[in-house]
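User: Hello, can you help with two protein structures?

Assistant: Certainly.
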Amino acid sequence: MLGTNVNEFGSGILSIEQRGALDVSFQPVNASKMFLNAEEAAHRLGVTVGWIYERTRRKLIPHRKLGKFIRFTESDLQAISDAAATGSVQ
């Protein structure tokens, strides 16, 4: 069975398979919502909000700036997930 502590996962970032196994309340995305905020994106990706802010600050992950706000589209999240799967996002 999969554990939930960081030591068992190494980096603390969960793979798609691990997130699916842990998140039994996974719900389909509301397609009508155009942008996600950092907290929503972090939840969907299975990472911390700090991880999101650090990578956006360093321009390592795709995102949108709407004034002072950071927002993500579904395609941004897919690109982040794809990059993580290939090991190109740390």
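That covers the first. Now for the second protein you mentioned:
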Amino acid sequence: MVWFPEYTKLVSTKEYEAQTELIANKTYNGFAFNTSVENVHWIDSFFKNCSFHNLTFSHVTFDNCIIHEVRFEIIKSSRTYFKNSIIKDSRFDAF
């Protein structure tokens, strides 16, 4: 038997995961991301010469992605993961 607060947390987590936007096998070339990204799971995607600037990542996963010549500038991040991804010639700037 699950105690009530634990059960509430479990249900809340499952609801959040059900609303996750899955983006698979997408290529971004020269794209500028300038709005916050929340609850997104990129799978097998390719990012080349892109920029993520002045935004927030919240619950974002890059899974088996290739990130090449990408700039991450002025990023606030919570629960952001790079799983089995390749990051090459990219820049992470913190202010």
